[in-house]
Queue: 2 jobs
Job 1
Amino acid sequence: MTAPNPEPAGPAAALEGLRAEVEAALDRALPPEGAWPATIHRAVRYSLFAGGKRIRPVLVLAAAGAVGGSREEAMPLACAVEMIHTYSLVHDDLPAMDDDDLRRGKPTSHKVFGEAVAILAGDALLTRAFHLMAEVPAGWSDGRVRRRLAATAVLGEACGTGGLIGGQVVDLESEGRTIDGAALEGLHRAKTGALLGACVRGGAILGGAAEDDLARLARYADAIGLAFQVVDDVLDATESAERLGKTAGKDEAAGKSTYVSVHGLAGARRKAAELRGQALDAVAPLGERGALLAHLARLVVDRTS
Amino acid sequence: MTAPNPEPAGPAAALEGLRAEVEAALDRALPPEGAWPATIHRAVRYSLFAGGKRIRPVLVLAAAGAVGGSREEAMPLACAVEMIHTYSLVHDDLPAMDDDDLRRGKPTSHKVFGEAVAILAGDALLTRAFHLMAEVPAGWSDGRVRRRLAATAVLGEACGTGGLIGGQVVDLESEGRTIDGAALEGLHRAKTGALLGACVRGGAILGGAAEDDLARLARYADAIGLAFQVVDDVLDATESAERLGKTAGKDEAAGKSTYVSVHGLAGARRKAAELRGQALDAVAPLGERGALLAHLARLVVDRTS
C-alpha cells in the first residue's frame, strides 16, 4: 500500500488517494484472515476485497471533505457503507434471491464457500459495519460522539425495510411483472438510492455540515442515487458479461422492469444525463470544495462497468 | 396490553411486568405490519412475536435495574437483543443451515414466506436492532449518549465473528464430527454465551454500573450463558418436540457433540447446577437489588422448554 498523496493534483488523483486509504482502512477494520473461525474471515474478505470500485466510501469522504470535515472522522462510515454494500450483494446473489454465479468477474460467495457460510458472511459484514460505527476512542469530544451516533442513525434508516432491504423485497416481487415508471423509481430509490444518500448525508453530518450545505448535499445524493441505477440498467442491456464482471442481460431474462424497458434505451440515457446535471447544479455553490463530488457524479453516469 | 405493576410483589411478578413492557416496546420499535413493503413487515413480526420467552431483554432490564439504572434507558438494548436473537434463529433455521421446519411450535419463517423473504427478514431484524441503538432523543445528556454508544459496541462485539456468528460457523463445521469438552465450551461461549453476556454487561453499562458491580455481573453473565446451552442440550435429549416447540433429538440425529454426548446426561445436569451456583454467588453481594437476576439464573437452569 503506497502512502496517498496529501495534496492531489486534481479530482482524479484525489479519488485514487482516497481509494487507497479506504482499502487500508477496510483491511484494518476486519480481523485477520486466519482469526478464529478462519472460514468466516476468509469468506468476508473474499467478497469485501473482490475489486469493488469503492464509490460509496469515496462519496462519504468527499461529502465530509466538502464541508470541511476530517478523513479520520469520516473513515469508519466509509468502511461501514462498503461492508453493507458488500453484504447486500452477497445475500442478493444467493440461490434463493437472484441466483448469480458471477460477481465482479469472480464466482459468488456461495459458489466458493457454500450457501450457509455466504449467508453468515453477509450477516458478519452487516454486523461489523454497525459495530465499527459504535467504536469511538475514549478521548473523543461530546460533539464528535453525537455526530457519530447521528450518522449511524442515518445509516440504519437507509439499510432498513424502508431502504435497502425494502427495495430488494419489492425487486423480488416485481420479477415477471410489469411495473410503471413511478413504481420503478420508488423501488430504486429504496434499493440503491437510500444507501448512496446515506453516504453523502452521513459524511456531511460527520464533517459538521451547516444546514444549507446539508440540503445541497441531500439534493446531490438524490440525483446520483437514481442516476446510478438508471446507468446500471443501461449497462445490463448493452454491455457484455466480461466487461461488467457479472451476468449481463439478466434483467430482461428475469422479466424485470428496468429504466430501459420502461423508457427505452435513449430515454434511459437522457434520464441519466439529466440527473447528472441536477447533481452538478446542487454542488456548484460549493465551488472548489465540491470538485470531487462533481467528479464522482460524472463518473457514476459515464462509467462503462 | 395491561399496564405493568410498578411495585411487583416479588421476582416472578417483576418478571411478568417486564415481559409485558418488552412486548409493548418491541411493537413500537417496528413499522406497522401494513407499512411498505408489507411482506417484509409481516415476516419480521411473524418471527419476533412467535412466543419467545424474552429472557434476553429481561436480563438487560434486570442488569440495569440491579445497578440503579432506569428501564427507559435500557429498553432499546432490551429490544435490540431480542431482535438479534430472533434474526439468528430465522437464519439458523434456513435450509442451507440447520434446515428446521418448526420453531416455538410454529412453521419457521422460510416455510411460511419462502427462503428469500426469510433471509431478508433476518437482515431486517439485525439492521433494526442497531438502528434502534443509534436513535437517541435530542435532549439526552452527553453521559447518556456515551453510555448508549458503549453498550452498542458491546453488542456489536457479541454478535460478530468472535461471538454469535463465529459460534454458528463452528457449530455447522462440527456436525458429524466429535469435538472435545473444551472445543464444545468454546463453541457455546461464542454461539450462546456472547449475546447473553452482552445483555448483562450492556444493561449494566446503560445503568451506569461502577467497576465492581460490572465485574460481578460479568461473572454472572459467563455462568448463565454457558448454563443456558447446557440446559438446551439436556432438553434436546430428554424432552418431546411438543413441549420444546421445535424439533427434538436433532443434535443426536445430526451427529452433533453436545454436553450430553460429551459428559453424559447426569454430568450435564451437574454442570448446569454448578453454573447456577456460580451465577447466584456472583450476584449475592447485590442483595435485594440482585433478586431478579438470581430468579432468572434459577429459571434458566430449571426450565423445561
Note: Chain A touches chain B through 54 residues (CB under 8 Å).
Job 2
Amino acid sequence: MLHLYDNLDSGNGYKIRLLLAHLGLPYAWSDLDIFHGASRTPEFLAKNPNGRIPTLELEDGTFLAESNAILWYLAEGTPFLPDGRLGRAQALQWMFFEQYSHEPYVATSRFILRHLPANSPRRAELPDRQERGLQAIAVMEKHLAWRPYFVGERLSVADLALYAYTHVADQAGLDLTPFPAVRGWMTRVASQPGHVPITAVPGG
Amino acid sequence: MLHLYDNLDSGNGYKIRLLLAHLGLPYAWSDLDIFHGASRTPEFLAKNPNGRIPTLELEDGTFLAESNAILWYLAEGTPFLPDGRLGRAQALQWMFFEQYSHEPYVATSRFILRHLPANSPRRAELPDRQERGLQAIAVMEKHLAWRPYFVGERLSVADLALYAYTHVADQAGLDLTPFPAVRGWMTRVASQPGHVPITAVPGG
C-alpha cells in the first residue's frame, strides 16, 4: 500500500491527499510534527535526504519526494494528466510556476503567520513575500480570465498544485477579493466530486 | 522554427540551449537584456505574463515558460526523458528540487555577485543563500555517490537541469572541492558528445 509521510497543515501534502481522494486510492498516512524536527531525524532523512514532507513510499519501498513530482507519478494514466505533449508541458509550466513564484511567497507567509511566534524576526519578511504572492495570484487571474482550468477543459494536476495554497491565501494575510477569476476557479475545483478539505484527516 | 527568448548568462536559459544542442535542433535565439527590464516590457509580458526568460515560442506560435517545463516538452520522445513511470517521476523530483532547493540559492548568489554592484544591500543575503546552496549540493553528492547520473544509467533532463547552475557554482562563491561525486558527474555531463558551454552563442 502507498504510504504518505505528511503534515496535516501542509498545502504541499494536501495536494497529494486531494489527488488520492479523487483517484479513490487507499494509503497509509503519517502525520509528522515537522515544526519540531520530525522531518530532519536520521530515520526520515534515510527516506528523503532533503528532509521534507510530503514524501510518498511506493508499494516496492521506493521513496518519492517533491509534491508536484508525486502528483505526476500518481496521475500518469489518469484523466488528471493532460493529453498530449503540449498539454503535459503546460501543466508542468504551471507546477514549476507554483513552486518558484507562488509557494515561496504564499505558503511561506502563511507559515510565518501560523507557526512562528508573533515576535519572530521573520515577520519582517512578510511585506515583500505577500507582495510577491499577490503578483503570482495576479498572473493566475490573467490566465483564468477566459479559461475554466489551467490546462484544457478539465481539472488536472496543475489545478491541484495551485489550489493547495491559493485556497488558504487568507491565512497568509492575502485578500483575494480583487481576483474574481481565481475565486471562481477555486469554487469549481472545490465542487468537483471527490474533493476533500485540507483539514480532513485521511482515514479519519 | 523554434524561437528561444533567453539571456546568454542565464543558467535557466542554458538548460534549453544545452538540450537543443544535444538534439541537434535548429532555433532562432533572442538575447534579452533582462538586467535592464527587457523581460518586463508589455511586448514580452504578452509572451510570458510572469515576465521571465527562458520562454520558448513553438512553431505554432504558442509560448512555453519555465525552463524545466520547456526541457520536458523538448525531451518527450527522446532518450533524454527516462523510460517508465517511476523514472519520469524521479526526473521531475530532481527538477523540482532544482527549482526549489538549489536555484534560489546557487543561482541567486551568482546573480548577486555578478550583476549587482559591490555595495548592493542584497549582499547581506549571501551568507544564508550560499549556506543553503551548499546544503543542496550536499544532497546531490549523497545521491551521486554510487550513481553515474541522477536517474538511471544515462544523461537525462534531470542532469541538464542541475548541471546548469552547479557547474558555475564558483561564480556563486561556492567551493565544490568537498564534493567529489558532484565534480565527477559534472565531468561526465560535459564530456558527452553534443555538449556546449554556457558561453556559446547559439548560431554564433
Note: The mean pLDDT of chain A is 97.
